[in-house]
Write a structure and sequence with these properties.
Number of helices: 13
InterPro entries: Beta-lactam/transpept-like, Glutaminase
Catalytic activity: L-glutamine + H2O = L-glutamate + NH4(+)
Strand order of the largest sheet: 2-1-8-7-6
Helix content: 40-55%
Subunit structure: Homotetramer.
Structural class: alpha+beta
Order of helices and strands: HHEEEHHHHEHHHEHHHEEEH
Strand content: 5-15%
Shape: globular
Bound molecules: glutamine
Number of strands: 8
EC number: 3.5.1.2
Number of domains: 1
CATH class: Alpha Beta
Largest sheet: 5 strands, antiparallel
Distance between the termini: 18 Å
CATH superfamily: DD-peptidase/beta-lactamase superfamily
GO molecular function: glutaminase activity
CATH topology: Beta-lactamase
CATH architecture: 3-Layer(aba) Sandwich
Length: 307
Amino acid sequence: MRAMDFQPILDEIDDELRPMLGTAGGTVARYIPALARVSPLQFGIALRTCSGETAAAGDAAVPFSIQSVSKVFSLTLAIKALGEAMWDRIGREPSGTAFNSLVQLESERGIPRNPFINAGAIAVADRLVSLGDAKAELLAMLGRLCGEPIHIDEEVASSEADTGFRNRALANFMKAFGTLDNDVDEVLDVYFHQCGIAMTCEQLACAAGYLCRDGRHPLAGTPVLSKAQARRVNALMLTCGTYDAAGEFAFRIGLPCKSGVGGGIVAVVPDRLTLCVWSPALDATGNSLLGRRALELFVEKTGMSVF
Ligand SMILES: NC(=O)CC[C@H](N)C(=O)O
């Protein structure tokens, strides 16, 4: 199937879901004041094939807060720099608990279950702090991946810092167990800023392109990750990328996905394309309600799934 054929499919999905904006339920992430102000009446979808063809519909060119979708890119940077050592104090099992849960950390001696829950992403941010200027590195990598400069929304980042009580608790708890090497405030500063990165569906569909083509850069074709590393990031997205809804996502969609409380979800069809959907109203698990529905429709209409 060529990208040309995808445009009517994305248009159909947009036509089907747009009337549900504001009536389908769900709420924007209220615990971060800057996100609580975002209009829920927005929906975007964009894809980019491994060969570089693109299609987009709805609000695909509107920048939004990528939030936990950033965890894919921070993990990529850390794996690139550290290889296997990245996993020394970070697990690879689904948590089955909310993204910001503290419960497992106590009985599991401060080792986060995986790099996609908040605790795990904070531990990844700690590794990046040890390596250098993490914020600059992350922005530079994203800029190269989508061929456009990428920025942090400082208002979102400081709003997170003001209200990030749970993340502070997670970081301090891990520090007490020796999971973090660096100063808690320095690590959280990186974490809050990576969550505050603003990107569009079109940019994210392009930036995540290395995940559908064995680790090769979406524009340049040079290695971002090795083939084995890219396969592993996809495996973690499938099992852990949508928190305690990961089973339901695998059941209904069957694609590696990473969501964020800004309402974005990046999905990978290995060897074919990467897809990004966005709609700010979230379900109880912190995943975009209409984004999830859009991915279900996409899989239904195209038959694309890893299963
Ligand atoms: N699931 C998410 O997107 C969570 C990220 C958010 N910044 C938080 O730390 O709570």
